[in-house]
Amino acid sequence: xxxxxxxxxxxxxxxxxxxxxxxxxxxxxxxxxxxxxxxxxxxxxxxxxxxxxxxxxxxxxxxxxxxxxxxxxxxxxxxxxxxxxxxxxxxxxxxxxxxxxxxxxxxxxxxxxxxxxxxxxxxxx
Length: 125
Prior knowledge:
Layout: E1 13-14, E2 22-28, E3 42-50, E4 53-58, E5 67-73, E6 81-93, E7 98-107, H1 110-124
Antiparallel strand pairs: 1-3, 2-3, 2-5, 3-4, 4-7, 5-6, 6-7
């Protein structure tokens, strides 16, 4: 039996390439007023997700602390989850020019968190 305590507050779902992808769109937002910077949505496949945040790969360095508007399409849930997040990790994957982006949700409703948790539990069964 392991004595290692789980640090994560929420269950995490690892989206494997053989499964239906979990897709999201994101927009970079201005920090000062949290307005959307442009009409451009960048579409990514999420590598993993929990009610606390998500992880994906991007072609550009988005920078730690960058605020994002997110639209997440979870499988088995009807509405798109709209929320805001902040980049907490952005590492270049060597020797490529791909960046690993970790997002912490900073503005997400309790109903959206519950939808993510419920969907993750169903996917993990």
